[in-house]
Write a structure and sequence with these properties.
alpha+beta; 3 helices; about 45% helix
Length: about 80
């Protein structure tokens, strides 16, 4: 499993989002930014992203994924605060 494979899966399930995936082997971090998260709780945002890679998790191909999901406005604020 590599970051590009995970990014492609997330992009297929959440089109029109800006996605960055980093990590190696079995531990990855995904930052997903999109209007699709507007009005959603942090838990719901994570569930939306997990749904795109659930098959990889249940098969064991993906062991650990840390998800940070933001609306564009939240992401801009987080970047100003140097939180990613």
């Amino acid at each position: 499993m590599n970051p590009d494979e995970i990014k492609q899966r997330i992009a297929a399930g959440l089109p029109d989002c800006e996605i960055t995936v980093s990590g190696d082997g079995s531990h990855f971090e995904a930052i997903v930014v999109g209007d699709v998260f507007a009005g959603k709780s942090p838990v719901k945002k994570q569930q939306m992203v997990y749904a795109t890679v659930n098959e990889l998790i249940t098969s064991g191909a993906l062991h650990a994924l840390t998800i940070k999901a933001y609306t564009p406005q939240e992401w801009e604020k987080a970047r100003k605060l140097q939180v990613s």
